[in-house]
């Protein structure tokens, strides 16, 4: 694959800028925190409303993966007796003051670690929600490993527009390189998904 095409794929697929609009009680993830992931497949901002607990609402940028975490000691977020949180998704219409939802997006019960995908419904206005796999939206490791040595250096990450902060989050062993194993582990750690475009 030519170098320019690899960079184009990576530029579209990865940069981890925090796009979390935090509500009271929401913080950066720590060990033991409860998180859920969202993949916004639309070209519009999607808002997540909590139907229970302390999470009021969060926004996900268009064509972006994100994750939202509640502190481990906040029993109000995943507060239902079965350990789930009740949420609702709406699409913000940029042309009108309307918010559009859909039957599959109004009463969703998520457990920590689950990821939900949001896409347009058949009418193009409403949205539909379904469980999603984050790994379906990550670029191939070879597109990021520009020199083909089996790992991604900070220089390669920078040339692919991956911020140093995101690089450090993926480089779990701290050796200054992203290995193929670390790359494959991204979907298992949904907190790394914050702001990743595709």
From TrEMBL:
Q: Which InterPro entries did the record assign?
A: EF-hand-dom_pair, EF_Hand_1_Ca_BS, EF_hand_dom
Which of UniProt's keywords are assigned here?
Answer: Signal
Q: Where does this protein come from, organism-wise?
A: Alkalidesulfovibrio alkalitolerans DSM 16529
> What's the protein name?
EF-Hand domain protein
EF-hand domain residues are 158-193
Lineage of origin? Bacteria, Pseudomonadati, Thermodesulfobacteriota, Desulfovibrionia, Desulfovibrionales
Q: Which CDD domains match?
A: EFh
Domain of life of the organism encoding this protein: Bacteria
Give the signal peptide, or none: 1-22
Gene Ontology molecular function: calcium ion binding
Q: In the UniProt record, does the keyword Chaperone occur? A: no
